[in-house]
Task: inverse folding
């Protein structure tokens, strides 16, 4: 899936009706009204994290809660004499794509860094979700010197089958980037993931945190020294699935920014200051996705300017403001398109990935601004942090069911949610109910069946509605009905903000 460009379109401020429980809450100087109860936000948080257990590859632990899943991919990497078991399937198929997996991990870690204090008891489950990925990324990064393993399975072969991960009989080829065949984009994103995760585990597991940070530094050096796009090195197996359309400059700046956050090494600050202008610091970009990291990098680095810890970062504050202004109707610089029901709309395929990442950045920036007394400059207008919270909350609530269809786009949340999601493991009978293998071709009867999925992938957020707020609950319509890890990862932080702040406001 490609990161879509931003179109222009009308905006309607008319709020969708239904599930209205208005209460005005104040915390940290931010005010917002709630369409859901504190318990509902907490429930959504718990389920958004639980989803990742359904995407696990490898030997499942004894505390696995989604019991319809079983062990899978236990020999991944063995033909190449490396251990590449574990990690996540990115969406509804059985491929382990390194670029979206690393981005998912970075977002989960950032969510815990910014909003872990709002997660309550869920923070340990969030950390477990991060560790399931970082354990895999560490193996992928240290298996062979000057090599990073970035993918398991040929997606072209995988997509010819509809089968449970537990039954996979398609080739589990492994793919790598090297000094001769570089992949700066996927390598720098992997470095970002490991560096961000090192912050998460710094207090609870210092030795693991140190290993993550040391590996992140080595992988980043590899990405920077041997420059090139992995789309060029591995074109036939990464394109068009996860082509690096934006190039690799954005990941290099993003990776350096996370190493700057995670370490006391001033060389990363110098790297950002020396290379920022050539790596995208001067660019305005209005999409944050698995492919394009520029907007997220600007928000992350703006904190250094706002809290006066990094000199020369004024440019990142200015471009962060431009990104935020592009989302806020009736302000100079507004460029976004919203549906009549109020949903941010950027692409016909997996649109909710842009909704959840934008919501996360709005809330993260609001938190940065609130802690320093800052505002967003949109032309001559000063936009306060609570405006950002209000807009993000409209998006979060829309996803959870406050929309024209009264449909929750999170599976298992609310009274009405998608029943026919485009997801192999969810749509096929579980191993417990159907112990004998279901072969590659025999699984298609379940893809084309009109029956609801037999296994509930709790917490999965699907691609979402179209630009007219319409949604086809159809397994064959993968553009709308397929969940992905990176949709959920950003939502974890966004919904945690509201769960934690509402709980605090209610004294819970």
Result:
């Amino acid at each position: 899936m490609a990161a879509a460009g931003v179109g222009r379109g009308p905006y309607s401020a008319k709020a969708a009706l239904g599930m209205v429980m208005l209460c005005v809450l104040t915390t940290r100087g931010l005010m917002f009204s709630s369409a859901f109860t504190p318990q509902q936000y907490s429930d959504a948080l718990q389920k958004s994290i639980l989803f990742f257990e359904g995407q696990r590859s490898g030997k499942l632990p004894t505390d696995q809660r989604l019991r319809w899943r079983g062990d899978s991919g236990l020999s991944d990497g063995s033909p190449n004499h490396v251990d590449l078991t574990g990690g996540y399937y990115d969406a509804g198929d059985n491929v382990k794509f390194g670029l979206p997996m690393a981005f998912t991990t970075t977002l989960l870690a950032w969510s815990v860094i910014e909003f872990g204090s709002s997660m309550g008891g869920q923070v340990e489950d969030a950390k477990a979700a991060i560790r399931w990925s970082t354990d895999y990324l560490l193996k992928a990064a240290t298996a062979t010197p000057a090599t990073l393993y970035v993918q398991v399975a040929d997606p072209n072969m995988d997509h010819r089958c509809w089968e449970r991960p537990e039954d996979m009989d398609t080739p589990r080829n492994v793919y790598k980037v090297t000094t001769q065949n570089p992949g700066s984009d996927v390598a720098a994103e992997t470095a970002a993931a490991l560096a961000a995760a090192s912050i998460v585990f710094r207090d609870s597991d210092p030795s693991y945190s140190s290993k993550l940070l040391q590996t992140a530094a080595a992988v980043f050096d590899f990405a920077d020294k041997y420059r090139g796009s992995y789309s060029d090195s591995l074109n036939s197996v990464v394109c068009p699935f996860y082509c690096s359309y934006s190039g690799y400059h954005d990941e290099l700046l993003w990776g350096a920014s996370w190493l700057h956050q995670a370490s006391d090494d001033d060389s990363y600050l110098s790297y950002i200051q020396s290379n920022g202008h050539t790596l995208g610091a001067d660019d305005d970009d209005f999409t944050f996705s698995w492919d394009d990291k520029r907007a997220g990098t600007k928000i992350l680095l703006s904190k250094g300017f706002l809290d006066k810890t990094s000199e020369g970062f004024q440019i990142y504050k200015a471009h962060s403001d431009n990104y935020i202004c592009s989302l806020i109707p009736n302000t100079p610089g507004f460029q976004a398109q919203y549906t009549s029901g109020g949903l941010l709309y950027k692409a016909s395929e997996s649109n909710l990935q842009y909704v959840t990442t934008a919501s996360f950045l709005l809330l993260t920036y609001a938190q940065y601004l609130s802690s320093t007394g800052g505002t967003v400059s949109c032309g001559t207008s000063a936009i306060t942090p609570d405006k950002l919270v209000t807009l993000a909350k409209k998006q979060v609530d829309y996803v959870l069911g406050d929309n024209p269809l009264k449909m929750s786009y999170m599976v298992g949340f609310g009274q009405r949610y998608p029943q026919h999601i485009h997801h192999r493991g969810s749509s096929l009978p579980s191993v417990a109910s159907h112990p004998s293998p279901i072969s590659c071709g025999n699984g298609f009867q379940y893809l084309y069946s009109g029956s609801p999925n037999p296994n509930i992938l709790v917490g999965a957020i699907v691609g979402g509605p179209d630009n007219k707020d319409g949604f086809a609950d159809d397994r064959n319509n993968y553009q709308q009905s397929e969940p992905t890890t990176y949709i959920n990862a950003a939502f974890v932080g966004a919904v945690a903000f509201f769960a934690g702040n509402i709980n605090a406001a209610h004294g819970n």
Q: What stands out?
A: The radius of gyration is 21 Å.
